[in-house]
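Moderator note: this is an archived Q&A kept for reference. The question asked for a predicted structure of one protein chain; the sequence and the answer are reproduced below.
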Amino acid sequence: MDEIETKILEIDVRKTKAKLESLGATKVFEGPVRTVFFDRQDTLRSSGRMLRVRQKGAKAYITAKRRKADAEVRVSDEQEAEVPDFDAACALLETVGFGRREEISRKQTSYRIKGSLAEIREYADQPPVLEIESPTKEELKEVVALLGYRMTDTTTMTGFEVRERYGL
């Protein structure tokens, strides 16, 4: 399934939440998110692919992504499945030869606006990020505009690339 998304870096969290709420967006999640990325000698990352296990509240997911070419927004083929146990999923990937590449924790507040998901991501070691995921490029652009941004304010950087930008 295609995932269409963009990021806006260094947002004002309070203003962004207020704007989303003024637009009638529905808060669908607020809490800690823990993510462990896996790779095998950087072969996935170097080929535009990603494998992770994520714990979001009480739920856990295993996700594989493959980046597709698009200059304007980030489009990835994403396959995701809910798993019953975060630690067991991590252990399974390690058993078949994947190593932990990076582990990231953050506070996340997610809102549903139109058919899109707007996620405010707050980290201890980098400025906050707004990620918008939409079913189409057109809706993504519409949500970006509704929030008071232009597409030139957005980036197609991956989370790894954002962290590298901040020297992490």
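Archived answer notes: The beta strands are 2-9, 26-39, 49-56, 59-68, 74-83, 99-113, 116-122, 129-134.
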